[in-house]
Amino acid sequence: MQRGIYIVANDRVIDNAIALLNSIRFYDEKVLVYLIPFNENYQNVANILTRFHQVQVFPYLEFLEQFTQTIGEIFPKDFLALPNKMRKLAVWFGPLDEFIYIDTDIIVFEKIADSLNQLAEVDFFCCDYHHRSEGLQNIFSSLVKEQQIFTEEQLQDVFNSGFWASRKGVITQQMMEETLRECAMHKEYFDFSCGVTDQPILNYLVLKHITKRRNLVKTPEGEPGSWAGSPHFQEKDYVLYDSDRRLKYLHWAGTPIKPGGSYWKLWEHYRYLHEVREDKVPLLQRLFRR
């Protein structure tokens, strides 16, 4: 059985991808990692991640292109803000039997693949407080509750689409296509008001088809928060803590990664973990290089 991690990236997010992989490899040198190209402009990020972190490019590129084409045929042009974000749904049809999907605006603080042991008991897990902090915002409109598309209990399981895990075969290609067509007929079910793309559709897919699911923050052991917009996390040795609880990961969802921004110095540490930045080299040393 093959276990590992999927990411979606192109050259535009190369710095984020490097920071993420630096953090993953800091805690785990061997876990399989596959890069799903966001579009055709991915050669630079693929070369760097392959060279330094043994990342492999998703091997079924022809399937990925066909999958993207099918999504374009199913959804009207004004339905999805960034249709290629839907490529993350191809994880159910990739080489990994059990997998974690991780957005590139994340860094991790542990051997994250160990979380896959949760799949011994469930078919899907996530680890976030979206259900508490945002409720249905950026996922569903009020119609799903009014028309009882999902129960109140099901709607307590909504999640952020940046970090989650499942296993191959839980979603079949037929289930995927039928559900996407169903979603395309009911744009009124979804909240795209803030420009999200894949998150509402992924939630619909999971809530409808995967009954054995778990949010790790709801387990008796629980997990601390993970959103970079939370200002109270404390840093120690380039790891964040919520009081005395070590974070599993940090996600900049909707929060810019930029100088002066939330936890910028921490992100910068992981981005340049194995590099000497030019602006950190003393001026005289830079002059003698020329």
Briefly, what is this?
This protein has 290 residues and is α/β, with parallel strands linked by helices. It is 31% helix and 16% strand.
Describe this structure in words.
There is one protein chain. The chain has one domain (3-286): Spore Coat Polysaccharide Biosynthesis Protein SpsA, Chain A (Alpha-Beta Complex). Helix content is 31%, strand content 16%. The protein is built from ten helices and twelve strands. It has helices spanning 14-27, 43-53, 61-74, 130-133, 143-146, 152-155, 173-184, 198-209, 264-271, 283-289, and strands spanning 3-9, 32-37, 56-57, 98-102, 106-108, 124-126, 163-167, 213-215, 234-236, 239-242, 245-246, 249-251. It has a seven-stranded mixed β-sheet with strand order 3-2-1-4-7-6-8, with helices on one face. Helix 1 (14-27) packs parallel to helix 2 (43-53) and helix 7 (173-184) crosses helix 8. The longest helix has 14 residues, at 14-27. The radius of gyration is 19 Å and the shape is globular. The model is unreliable at 281-290 (pLDDT under 50).
Keywords:
three-stranded antiparallel β-sheet; globular; alpha/beta; seven-stranded mixed β-sheet
Question: Which secondary structure elements does this structure contain, and how are they paired or packed?
Answer:
Layout (H helix, E strand, L loop, with lengths): L2 E7 L4 H14 L4 E6 L5 H11 L2 E2 L3 H14 L23 E5 L3 E3 L15 E3 L3 H4 L9 H4 L5 H4 L7 E5 L5 H12 L13 H12 L3 E3 L18 E3 L2 E4 L2 E2 L2 E3 L12 H8 L11 H7 L1
Parallel strand pairs: 1-2, 1-4, 2-3, 6-8
Antiparallel strand pairs: 4-7, 5-12, 6-7, 9-10, 10-11
Helix pairs in contact: 1-2, 1-9, 7-8
